[in-house]
Amino acid sequence: MTSQSAFLDSNRLVYSGAAPSPSEQARRARRWGWLIYAECRLRRMKAYFGTILVVALLYPVLYLAAMGIGLGSLVNSGVGGIDGVPYLVFVGAGLLVSTIVTESTNEFTFSIMAGFKWEKTFYATQASPISPAQMVIGEVVGVFVRLFAQAIPFWVALLVFGAAPSGWSWLIVPIAAVAGISFGAPLMAYSATVEDEGYQFAFVQRFIVMPMFLFAGTFYPLAQMPPYLQWVGWISPMWHGTQLGRIVSYGMENPLWLTVVHVLALVIPIVVGVALSVRVFTARLMK
Amino acid sequence: MSVIEASGLTKTYGELNAVDGISFEVAPGESFGLLGPNGAGKSTTMRMIGGTSLRTSGSLTVLGLDPELNGPEVRAHLGVIPQQDNLDTELKVRENLILYGRYFGLSHAFLKRKADELLEFAQLTEKADEKVDNLSGGMKRRLTIARGLVNEPKILLLDEPTTGLDPQARHILWDRLFRLKEEGVTLIVTTHFMDEAEQLCDRLIVMDHGKIVAEGSPASLIKEYATREVLEMRFGSERNASVVSQLEGIGARIEVLPDRVLLYTPDGEGALERVAHVGLRPVTSLVRRSSLEDVFLRLTGRSLID
Amino acid sequence: MKGLAAVYSGNVQAVIERGFRVIGNQNWAIILSGFFEPVFYLLSMGLGLGGLVGVVTGPGGQPITYAAYIAPALLATSAMNGAIYDSTWNVFFKMRFARLYQAMLSTSLGPLDVAAGEIFMALFRGLLYAIGFLGVMGIMGLTTSWWSLAMVPVALLIAMGFASLGMAVTSYFTTFQQMDLINVALLPMFLFSATLFPIEVYPVAVQWFVMAMPLWHGVELMRALSAGIFTDATAVHLSYFVVMTVSGVAFTTRRLRALFLR
Q1: What pLDDT digit, counting tens, does each position of C98-113 carry?
Q2: Can you give the residue ranges of every domain in chain C?
Q3: pLDDT digit of tens for each residue in chain B (306 aa)?
């Protein structure tokens, strides 16, 4: 134990008088709370930055080498490519978008529940001038930045593998990040309602994310599936994102109306998801 | 002018009146306690003060502001130390202070220095780069309190500040809080520990089932609702109830608990002699000063810690 | 290492009994959900992608459908994933957060009782999934030999190999971040072990690397059983897992004190 004299001057340490006035603190928080929160969200990722980095750098290479080249050799010898391009090019855009959407799932399930239940960080934040709505916006912005950053090395891998011939292919980076949020924002609203230990997230993983990855046009065109299963694609942000990704990565032909549908199908869930999340966060934190 | 004014403050959850029309005022620099058992409505009251729980009815102002309408402004004045530590385990000790300060719109330049000062204050300087998980319970608590001070608040809300701490850690904490009080900081403390309320609070309200059952300084409450001393006797669980008739008239008042008999009297030793005189031999006996525990027992007929 | 008596009290059944009690309390949908993952893969890849791939070369050089090609591999992968999950994440969680083992080991149970009981429970779940998946294969007409029934015990052998190894590895881990590395090791194993396409598409050096990995042997073993066509290599694959299991159990037993008594 430290001796008594070691903290004689503790009051001076606590009240320096250098802090801005409470009204100034409140003014800043009202205005910039969402951005401050997003910044903090990103800094907290430092704890698992190693994993993010390994996934961001290793997964593109693994997936492209296995699915693009390995599996591609079977497909190309079977039907000679898809949509007029080698299988590697077709599947590359799908793998990028689906990987980013899957990563988004991780950020919007357990970490949201932990903030309410295990670590109660949302309650801690709530004791500051930051509002629940600002937390929601901050979550979305913070994760968006992460997904955007993570999509960049994957896009570079596409280029290196020769899987993104179009000059517009860089646009797949923001598309994938938006698709991630499009799935993540409504998921966040749901995660914020979870009161128990979160076993529901195993269901989300196994009955939503996994089927989306497998059945929503990542590995083959939606038309390859029986018509009664194609709705899986239509309701999946992964599919809409993947299709937009293919348009920019190799110039897939797509009617204008359908492209508009893809864009709307990504944007609307974000708006709805954020609005719902604000309601759920506010209700739960203000209880 | 009062720092906090509550009038008819009520919070209901469905059928349950968690807080049931309480009124109180807190003066600047005062150390104000909310005492009561679990579920009495203390934490809910605290959260309403911070504007993080919406009241059902009644009025409440903090520095003249309504926390529901001016949440950010009110909370910028407050340091909140919750009952359960909600430290960010994904951040290191020092980062916890800095990022929490960011929520108050404070600059990195300010926070870098501030964090060092607070670590010093909380005696955690050597742990600055540790993970939160590696801290002991007492250290986590001190870090939570240091975090609540990051915006240099003049009002501190402390919800059960020392629950779960060992005696030594509690005394260190009380010492810290006492120093803040000397600085002129207003402390609002909920507790179900008598000794804590007696150590820290100038004035307190005793709450039960969401209502205020008594109000005053610890000394005045003890004076009003208890005698100077208490004689605690154990006769064995079978006999505690049956000896009461023989004890009649020895003290000012008798309370029979399942495991012991409490005899309220100005003179404990004298009472013990008189007990021996009527031919009773308690298995154990103890004379002590009355405490807020006795006040609560008197007011509600129940013990504070169940 | 001290004698066996120091780590074993001969009371595994108490741990197993608790395991079954937990299954009884658990949400059955959760247990059932584990069965769907390989089935989804089989439907998506086997049927959807199979339409594009057409016919591939199966065991013994005979042409088989793509679904029949990947199904045995998916069963092997599922056995691996389940066993690894139970012996790493599950063990780690129970130790660090639920503090379950702490309570168990403060009774007369020894670490070996706990480890053996947990592995038994992992194998029991693996057994259920293997039977279920074999049923799906049967319904889809992807099994052509009675030998395919032997895929169930072999799935348990694969699971046993991975579970014993997984527990030993977990004894070295201290944080959740390190646990993430396990997934990083499993994914390439799944992607490259001749699960979805033959390894011949890669350079010889890569092939040798893949053939050193356990999952490849599991996949080849399953594939041979599903078709009932065996070669000398089949004995090698089988021995690989026997050796892996025996050394895994020995390794884990050595590490028990480090794993549980920290």
Answers
A1: 677 777 777 677 788 8
A2: 26-260
A3: 799 999 999 999 888 899 999 999 999 999 999 988 888 899 899 989 988 888 999 999 999 999 888 888 888 999 999 888 888 887 889 999 998 888 888 898 999 999 999 998 888 999 999 988 889 888 998 899 899 999 999 899 999 888 877 888 888 888 888 888 888 899 999 987 778 888 889 999 999 999 999 999 988 888 888 888 888 888 877 777 777 777 777 878 888 887 888 889 888 888 888 888 888 888 888 888 888 888 888 888 776 655
Structural domain count of chain B: 2
Mind listing the pLDDT tens digit for each residue in C149-177?
999 999 999 999 999 999 888 888 877 77
How far is the alpha carbon of A105 from chain C, nearest alpha carbon, in Å? 16
A20 lies in some domain: no
Question: How many Å apart are CA C92 and CA C141, to the nearest integer?
Answer: 40
Residues B36 and B111 in one domain: yes
pLDDT of residue C139: 93
Query: What does each C-alpha distance from B270 to B267, B274, B287 come to in angstroms?
Result: 5, 6, 10
Residue A64 lies in a domain: yes
Tokens 């390190």 identify what position?
A: C178
A257: exposed, middle or buried (Cβ count in 10 Å: 0-12, 13-18, 19+): exposed
To the nearest whole Å, the CA of B236 is away from the closest chain A CA by 42
Option in C30, C48, C54 nearest A225 (CB): C48
Contact (CB<8Å) B100/A124: yes
Count of CB pairs separated by less than 8 Å, A with B: 150
DSSP E strand stretches across chain B: 4-13, 16-26, 31-35, 57-62, 78-81, 155-159, 186-191, 203-208, 211-216, 229-234, 253-256, 261-265, 284-289
d(CA B202, CA B195): 13
Q: How far apart are CA C259 and CA C253, in angstroms?
A: 10
Instruction: Name the average pLDDT for chain A.
Output: 91
| Residue C44 structure tokens | 């998506």
Could you tell me which chains touch chain C, where touching means 3 or more CB pairs under 8 A?
A: A
Residues of A in contact with B87 (CB under 8 A): 119, 124
Measure Cα distances from B257 to B214, B248, B262, B289 in Å.
22, 16, 8, 18
Q: Give residue B264's domain range.
A: 227-289
Describe the strand order of the beta sheet including B16-26 as a list of residue ranges: B16-26, B4-13, B57-62
Of the residues A10, A11, A14, A119, the best mutation for testing chain B's interface (the one with the most B CB atoms within 10 Å of its CB) is A14
Q: Are B264 and B255 in contact (CB under 8 A)?
A: yes
Q: Which domain holds residue A181?
A: 34-285
Q: Note the Cα A156 to chain centre separation in Å.
A: 19
Backbone angles phi, psi at B31, to 5 degrees: -110, 110
